[in-house]
Amino acid sequence: MEKILxxxxxxxxxxxxxxxxxxxxxKVAFVQTxxxxxxxxxxxxxxxDEDTKNLKIVQTITVVADDDEKLEDEEIAPAYISIxxxxxxxxxxxxxxxxxxxxxxxxxxxxxxxxxxxxxxxHIQRLVEDEIFNKYKSKIGxxxxxxxxxxxxxxxxxxEVDEIRxxxxxxxxxxxxxxxxxxxxxxxxxxVNMDKENGMQIELSRTSPKFLEALLALEVPEIAExxxxxxxxxxIPGERAKIAxxxxxxxxxxxxxxxxxxxVRINAVSDELIGENIDCIEYTNIPELFVSxxxxxxxxxxxxxxxxxxxxxxxxxxTLPADQKSKAIGKSxxxxxxxxxxxGMQIELxxxxxxxNEEGEIEEKKDGVDALEALFN
Length: 377
What we know:
Helices cover 34% and strands 31% of the residues.
């Protein structure tokens, strides 16, 4: 094969591959072809002659005695050569040495040529798939966009993203979403798989908390540049979400920057999420205070953190006024569920005898006349 280096560069340019990787794939193709047409149990190696730019195939063969039993075994005999025959190639050879014998695949006719063509196509295609696989493997959790090409009978949505087709399963769509062919949608890469039967499969998601985080980074410059960090996030897709934000700059208000003037930034993200309500919370590494903030809009009296045997925070016991319990739980339990997801702790609510006034301050509950006076004063 003439000018193999030029061929590797041409293929690499056409397919967007590194010439060095193309060359390795070509070497494998040549070796596999040699095994098919010369002998499957033989040891071959492909190398490039840098001067002539030719790719050469050599067979490594072991020198044994003339009466060695290996020469009588038809299965393994081609991998060995008698010392008498070996000395026809090199008169200095000794027992146990390994000779390298050149082979030219062109001498094996059309069978070798067609086999080599198939092998090259196969290994170049595998190389292309591996490159795409590694590219999207590194994109897990990041935002991509594309055009809907098909929606199947199970409502799985197939999306054309750059050079590949990804799938958005029904389970990873926000409730109530309907897509049609031609729609342009955003999602995050959730999973990338590769198997021999189905090839490469890329699964997208619009229900992952990572999708919310990616949209926020797209909408809020402070998050994109790192002056505001999303420490934690939790979602019940299409209904409500909570995000814990931390400012890395003393002059940047994490919550204010994320919400934007008159809520313009957070509303833009909410619109993409089909009206999902998003609560922004200032993160703190003080667990009691963080738990209290995650229970917003409920007003909390006290938080006690219970640790497990390993010393990790396992449970939060929250004491609160009776009139705040419904707010703490939320509609269908959504508020307490999100708080538990965000903190990673079980949450237990305990009512006390206090009440909240019109200013949202907690007051001790009074009995009899004092209670009536407290109500009207």
